[in-house]
Write a structure and sequence with these properties.
The chain is of the alpha/beta class and 452 residues long. The protein is built from 13 helices and 19 strands.
Length: 452
């Protein structure tokens, strides 16, 4: 029997593991990163311990989010020491925020790649075995295009698409313009082509993403035109979008939400504060009254639409009266859900240097009051759905009911008893019990399954 050379045996593919923090855009970027790595012949690992390449896809919107990443890097130090061949990379907004400082604070990090430079990841991974501490923090204008052909999507029916990246606003508290750069819109034809491609593969629900998604532009075309173009693609059942900026939420978009049958009746429109004085210091560019008028216009066009928003508690200089105006706004706007946070000073932002910081204990107290008030409002709002029948897309199993969970067009989550074979179908359910963040229901009628 002839001998053989071990060096000539084919090496198994390298395995990667991605850990993601943050918003829908970060979650979608994780899908795009996975697709890029898959296209290079890499395989996904079940855990960081099983991986050759560990990538932290990060968020820097608040100090706590950055802190979680730094803590995780500390946890990975031992893993790197036990196997120096492992590659550890920091991607996304913390990479852009910290830059070379990450190499100083965590020398075991090999790669630092900003959110607009993720397309360079395969090249950098090819170089990292011979040159450590590689970094790319460029704001590439074509970043909005990379990887969409090979995106690895785990949901077989619902797809996210980034249509605009970056932010041209100058909000005093926000690090996004620094980490994400100036706005770049993805071409309409490119977006529609991907939607058609995904419809052919069985996708029926689409969420259009952007830091300010409704700021999308191409020549004379605006976001309402984009909604119309996606709505016109045969096979699309639902269209969602997030996050909208109040300044760009126009009557044309409201009309599109009303008139286009596939555009969902749900809107995320963050006010950030209910006080005009605070809004001015935040540099938001609108007043409380202007915000509420946009909400009223939406309600006139779509009385059943559901609304969510963001509120910051304890922005520098926020007085008790200012905070009371934010509390009042919850009821006046009629938020069906709310994301609320205490103010977090971020580097590269004007508000970080404001001298009149609100004490942390006051911030925490105000945040608790916001959340308690909103909880009561949500419970009352969800109780009003009892007895109503809605179409649901069944998303997955329900840990709450043991059955399944589905979502309405206006983003109400419904748990109900039904077999798991219903997952992936559209069906109708009657709401039977209210709740704070979701409701209970019962299936009624027949179901519709894509491709059936």
């Amino acid at each position: 029997m002839k001998g053989f050379c071990l060096d000539r045996l084919p090496r198994p593919p390298e395995r990667y593991h991605i850990e993601t923090w943050g918003c829908q855009m970060n979650a979608h970027e994780a899908e795009r990163i996975a697709g890029l790595l898959d296209s290079q012949g890499l395989e996904r690992a079940a855990s960081a311990g099983d991986a050759d390449i560990i990538l932290l896809n990060t968020c820097a919107i608040r100090e706590r989010a950055t802190g979680k990443v730094l803590t995780r890097l500390g946890e990975l130090r031992d893993l790197k020491q036990s196997d120096p061949r492992k590659v550890i990379g920091v991607l996304g907004c913390v990479a852009q925020e910290k830059g070379k400082e990450l190499f100083r604070r965590a020398p075991h990090v090999d790669l630092v790649v900003g959110p607009r430079a993720l397309a360079s990841l395969p090249r950098l991974l090819g170089e990292v075995r011979t040159a450590r501490h590689l970094m790319d923090l460029e704001h590439y204008s074509d970043s909005v295009l990379y990887g969409h052909e090979s995106t690895r999507r785990d949901d077989p029916q619902r797809a996210c698409l980034t249509v605009i990246e970056g932010c041209n606003k100058t909000c005093a508290y926000c690090i996004v313009p620094f980490t994400r750069g100036r706005e770049v819109s993805r071409p309409l034809a490119n977006i529609v082509a991907e939607v058609r491609h995904l419809v052919e593969r069985g996708y029926v629900e689409f969420e259009l993403l952007g830091q300010n998604v409704n700021a999308w532009r191409e020549g004379e075309l605006d976001f309402a035109d984009l909604l119309a173009a996606v709505d016109a693609v045969d096979g699309v059942r639902r269209i969602r979008f997030t996050t909208s900026h109040p300044l760009h939420f126009s009557q044309r978009i409201i009309d599109a939400m009303r008139d286009l049958p596939r555009v969902c009746d749900y809107l995320h429109l963050p006010p950030q504060s209910g006080s005009n004085r605070v809004l001015k210091r935040m540099r938001r560019g609108y007043t409380r009254e202007a915000y509420l008028e946009k909400v009223a216009a939406l309600r006139r066009a779509l009385p059943g639409a559901r609304l969510s928003g963001d509120i910051i508690a304890g922005f520098p200089g926020e007085s008790a009266e200012d905070f009371a105006r934010s509390l009042d706004l919850l009821e006046e706007a009629g938020f069906d859900s709310l994301f609320s946070f205490r103010y977090s000073p971020r580097p590269h932002t004007p508000a970080a240097d404001y001298p009149d910081a609100v004490p942390i204990e006051v911030q925490q107290e105000r945040l608790a009051l916001l959340q308690e008030h909103q909880r009561a409002l949500q419970e009352a709002a969800n109780a009003r759905h009892i007895g109503r029948i809605y179409e649901l897309r069944v998303e997955g199993p329900s840990a709450r009911s043991g059955g399944v969970r589905g979502r309405t067009t206006h983003n109400l989550l419904v748990h109900f008893d039904a077999p798991h074979t219903l997952i992936g179908s559209f069906t109708h359910a009657r709401v039977t019990h209210g709740g704070v963040n979701a409701v209970r229901g019962e299936a009624v009628g027949s179901c519709w399954r894509h491709g059936a």
